[in-house]
Specification:
Layout: H1 3-9, E1 18-22, H2 26-32, H3 37-57, E2 62-69, H4 77-100, E3 104-108, H5 116-128, E4 136-143, H6 145-161, H7 172-175, E5 189-192, E6 211-214, H8 224-235, H9 245-252
Parallel strand pairs: 1-2, 1-5, 2-4, 3-4, 5-6
Helix pairs in contact: 2-3, 3-4, 4-5
The protein binds 3-methylbut-3-enyl trihydrogen diphosphate (2 copies) and magnesium ion (MG).
One 3-methylbut-3-enyl trihydrogen diphosphate binds at residues 23-28, 68, 72, 83, 194.
């Protein structure tokens, strides 16, 4: 039996609860093949589908996929419209896959600039899957971590002005309710493909204590085996959250 099959049978008790992936490298993957960038994005979608199936099999609690950043609006018009169409087709095509796998879907980001039809499809997908109890799949689309924090602060100020919240009640915990991803645990593990070693505005608040794994693999080449190996490495890491190792051992004992 291969080690990946073993992992399916025995979900690792130390596996992360919430994994986020910066799916990068589609354009370079296409260029290497002498194809247009959109060809790489299409391959990227197939890869995302594969990884969602793996996440379901290993009983991961939450998977967040970074599909389109706030900054990606500045790409050439043709690429942006190609991506929007691709997202739309993808949502349509994979609705039954998500239903059959008991996946709860959510989209996060600023929907104001998304095409109306895509916005509607994302909302439909959220509502159709809202009662599912398995993997929580979040698609970060038109999403930026800085924008998320700023719009949270705006809403906090409104609540403060309406005397819903007092200044001394503002804490790391209470501020969370002004952010996205509020029903989810913070990000345990962030993965970025394609060899870039930056976060590119992804989940800035929720990644405060994430393990971060950078891999050279371009997203369309990212295999399940590599994903399982990264999870394995994660499960062996000691997360200290600012504490010291000895005290963590004492508390465990
Ligand atoms: C990631 O791949 C997908 C999106 C940002 C939409 P890229 O399109 O950034 O691919 P590279 O980085 O140019 O190879
Ligand atoms: C980050 O990739 C955004 C997504 C993967 C959706 P980019 O390719 O846009 O990031 P930069 O420009 O390399 O930082
Ligand atoms: Mg890129």
């Amino acid at each position: 039996m291969s080690s990946s099959q073993e992992s399916y049978l025995n979900p690792n008790p130390n596996q992360p609860r919430h994994v986020g992936i910066i799916m990068d490298g589609n354009g370079r993957w296409a260029k290497l093949r002498g194809k247009r960038r959109i060809f790489g994005h299409e391959a990227g979608v197939l890869k995302a589908r594969e990884l969602v199936e793996t996440a379901v099999k290993i009983e991961l609690e939450a998977l967040t996929l970074y599909a389109f950043s706030s900054e990606n609006w500045s790409r050439p018009k043709k690429e942006v419209s190609g991506l929007m169409r691709l997202f739309e087709k993808t949502i349509e095509k994979y609705t039954s896959l998500l239903i059959n796998n008991n996946v709860r879907f959510k989209a996060v980001g600023d929907p104001s600039k998304l095409p109306r039809i895509l916005k509607r499809k994302l909302e439909q997908m959220e509502s159709i899957t809202s009662q599912n109890t398995g993997l929580i799949l979040t698609l970060a689309i038109a999403y930026g971590g800085q924008q998320e924090i700023v719009s949270g602060i705006k809403r906090l100020i409104e609540d403060h002005e309406s005397q819903i919240i007092d200044a001394n009640e503002i804490t790391v915990e209470s501020f969370k309710k002004y952010l996205l991803f509020q029903d989810l645990p913070d990000l345990d593990l962030m993965i970025r493909t394609s060899g870039e070693t930056r976060i590119s505005n992804f989940m800035l608040w929720q990644s405060a204590y994430s393990e971060i794994h950078f891999t050279e693999t371009l997203w369309p080449n990212f295999e399940e085996q590599e994903f399982l190996e990264i999870l394995q490495t994660y499960s062996q890491s000691e997360r200290r959250f600012g504490n010291v190792e000895e005290d963590i051992e004492l508390k465990k004992a």
